[in-house]
Design a protein that fits this description.
Arc Repressor Mutant, subunit A; single chain; 229 residues; 20% strand
């Protein structure tokens, strides 16, 4: 197992200790910060491989910590898993739209949290180095440089929007994208489109993918993801 480092930003010591105990037992190196300010300072001086981030922090709120990290090119690729008692759909969507890779609600199962951490780090290690590299999965081949898609050797004709959605999702299998993240990814920020428009595009894309349409999974109340391993 890779000896990755994880920073836990959590103001409740008992919860931080529970997380630290289970992560350490699983082979990870764990550091702890009690406030958002401390977390940001630690990341600046010693960037971890992943951050577990509470939201209700004293001082700088967890969502603001997430926003700062994801808007800074030096830390934009740092994986963040939000761990919070705030489990309303709006909170989950906000966290994901700010760039968090996953969202775990309290109270949580340590085994589930470990599985989420492993999955995020596994996806990080598996990220393609070249964004123009072809992606192959279950007989589906996506070639971004040529803007071509083949299913079991047969060419599939997609619109520009359909192609960009497919490539956006397939480049990060298992990652959940909200509808607005999808809009930003295929059209640029602030493009005037409704959530319904994304859903309609997904219906058409799945239909064209035929038997492989199931590779695009709906995450109820949040958005979509490309089926991970």
């Amino acid at each position: 197992m890779a000896n990755e480092s994880i920073l836990v930003i959590e103001d409740e010591e008992d919860i931080a200790e529970l997380i630290r105990f289970n992560l350490t037992k699983d082979g990870y190196r764990v550091a702890w910060a009690e406030t958002g300010e401390q977390g940001l300072s630690r990341i600046e001086h010693d960037p971890p491989d992943l951050v577990l981030l509470d939201l209700m922090l004293p001082g700088v709120h967890g969502l603001e910590v997430c926003r700062r990290l994801k808007s800074d090119r030096r830390t934009a690729s740092l994986p963040i898993v939000i761990v919070s008692a705030r489990g309303d759909e709006s909170d989950v969507v906000t966290g994901l739209e700010l760039g968090a890779e996953d969202y775990v609600t309290k109270p949580f199962s340590p085994r589930v949290l470990l599985a989420r951490v492993r999955a995020v780090l596994r996806r990080k290690r598996a990220e393609p180095v070249d964004k123009d590299s072809p992606i192959t999965r279950d007989g589906l081949r996506i070639h971004p440089g040529r803007r071509e898609v083949h299913l079991e050797g047969r060419s599939i004709e997609l619109t520009n929007s359909e192609f960009r959605i497919l490539h956006l999702l397939a480049a990060r299998p298992g990652w959940v994208f909200t509808r607005y993240q999808i809009v930003d990814g295929i059209r640029g920020e602030n493009y005037p489109v409704t959530e319904r428009s994304v859903d309609v595009l997904m219906v058409g894309l799945r239909k064209k993918l035929g038997t492989r349409g199931g590779l695009i999974e709906t995450v109820r109340g949040v958005g979509y993801r490309f089926k991970g391993d």
